[in-house]
């Protein structure tokens, strides 16, 4: 774990080689490339194909940021980061932005001096078992071997849950999603626990997904979101408001398909400010006024990105649930663009 004092010294001006300068936004614009840390391979969220082309929910967000800042969604270099090195690599400046299924917690926000730009996926920890095990509830996993990623919030939640419920924990540590999947499928453990979205992605990749079930209980809150360093304040604003632009665009019915039409026809003052027709929101971020327009055009608004990568019509098959707009019973809510 990176200690607060160490990062505090870095923020005071003794940052090690490779870290960001005083104004990361200017650096990114000068180099004409965004570096984005992502999961090494989690279907639906971030995974490369045989040609090294990255796709997924988190990948789409990185492309939206690149479009907003560099006017081209392709100007992203994706850096696969494992669970244990992701925060260190961000702190060292190896990546400008971390978009890697990471939970917003007190210690990560405060002790590691990271800046969560918001929540792009409201998740919770679940459990997957083989149907033949005959288990229908987490309460039936007493003394059952469970694979969990070492050093993750899932491991702490697992220990807490079993302690609270007076259950005996048989924990099998793994170092990554890939190792967890392998250990589970090979029978080294009888259950696998991680974020419910991760379980859906893992199950969808199985040759026999019908033989595996995700138990109904969710044992934690896992607000996942993009992260930057606290020292990079202006850059944090750019990442944060790009996320909110995608959320607000969906709320106002702005899509990658109708955006040009709405630029000409919309009389909604907030939509006109969002799309740069009126006001100077871009200038206040250090960007031009079409930054949000380009972010939406890159891969669509939040709803379009969700549907294309992890929605109910994809192999991942996730319902919107908590990730629906606040107007539709969910938690998605963008602050006003004014």
From TrEMBL:
UniProt entry tagged with the keyword Transport: yes
Cross-referenced SMART domains: PBPb (SM00062)
- Please list which residues make up the signal peptide: 1-22
Which InterPro entries does this UniProt record tie to the protein? Bact_solute-bind_prot3, Solute-binding_3/MltF_N
Keyword Transit peptide attached = no
List residues of the Solute-binding protein family 3/N-terminal domain: 33-262
Q: Which keywords label this protein?
A: Signal, Transport
Which domain of life, per UniProt? Bacteria
The text of the family note is: Belongs to the bacterial solute-binding protein 3 family.
Q: What is this protein called?
A: Amino acid ABC transporter substrate-binding protein
Q: Which organism is it from?
A: Paracoccus onchidii
